[in-house]
Amino acid sequence: MRLLSNVSATPTTRLIRIALDGVAFPYSAGQAAAIGRHGEPVTPYSIASAPSDTARDGYLEFLIKVDGSNRFGAQVTGIEPGARVQVTSASGRFGIPPTAAGHSLLFVAGGTGIAPLRSMIREQLHQDPHARAALVYSARTPDEFAFVDEFRALADAGRLNLTLTLTGNAQDWRHARGRAGDQHLAELLTSESVCLICGPPAMCTDVPQALMRLGVPKDRILTEDW
C-alpha cells in the first residue's frame, strides 16, 4: 500500500491516510491494524476512519502520536506521500456491541484514544440518520484536541452532545476542566446508556468506576486503553 497523505493533526500527532488502491480491507468501527514502512516492523494503531468512509473514499485514516516509543511514531513526521507502507488485517473486539441497538451512546476519550471512538461515532451517525451520541473528550492543552472542528460541526448540527474538558492549564479556556469524571458524565447519561471509553490506563480505570457510581451497569461499559 502507499501513503496518500501525512498532515499535522495536533502539535504531537499526525493524521495519515493510506490508499487501498482497490484492495479490499474489511474492518469494523473500533478495530485496529498494525502499520509500518515497507519491510520494517509494524506497530498497532486504532483505525480512525469509519468503514463507510473507507468504502466511499478508498483509504484508511490513522492518528499517530509522534514520539520515540516505537519505530513508526519516531519516523512518521518524515514519511512522504507516495511511500510504501504495510498494513496488517484489522483486529480487535472493541466496538459498539449489537446489544446497543436502540440505546443512547456515550463515548469518553483521552488523547489519541479518540481515534477508535471517532470511527464508531462516524459509522453510527452514517448508519442511522436519526442517531445521536455524546462525547466527553479530554486533552492536556487546547490544541491537542484532534478532529475538534469535525466534532463541533456535528454538535452544531444537533447530532453530537460534545464536552471538551482540559486537564492542563489555559487562561482563555471556556469549556470544562479536569479529568473526565462524575461531573462531566452525569448530565449525559440516560437510563439506557452504553458507554465506550478509550484513553490512558488511568482513564480506563477511573471512568468506569465513575459510571458505575452513577448507576450504569458494568456490562454496558466497554474500555480500550493505549
Description:
The chain is an alpha/beta fold. The chain is built from six helices and twelve strands. Helix 6 links the parallel strand 11 and strand 12.
Comma- or semicolon-separated keywords:
31% strand; 226 residues; six-stranded parallel sheet; 12 strands
Topology:
Elements: E1 2-10, E2 13-19, E3 32-37, E4 43-46, H1 51-57, E5 59-65, H2 71-75, E6 85-87, E7 105-110, H3 114-127, E8 133-139, H4 148-156, E9 160-166, E10 176-177, H5 182-185, E11 194-199, H6 201-213, E12 221-225
Parallel strand pairs: 7-8, 7-11, 8-9, 9-10, 11-12
Antiparallel strand pairs: 1-2, 2-5, 3-4, 3-6
Question: How many strand elements?
Answer: 12
Q: Beta-strand percentage? A: 25-35%
**Series of secondary-structure elements, N-terminal to C-terminal:** EEEEHEHEEHEHEEHEHE
Pairing-aware structural class of the strands and helices? alpha/beta
First and last CA, distance: 25 Å
- For the largest beta sheet, what order do the strands appear in spatially? 10-9-8-7-11-12
State Rg: 17 Å
Q: Enumerate how many helices there are, as a single number.
A: 6
Shape: globular
Residues in helices, as a percent range = 10-25%
Biggest sheet record: 6 strands, parallel
Concise account of the structure shown:
The protein is an alpha/beta fold and 226 residues long.
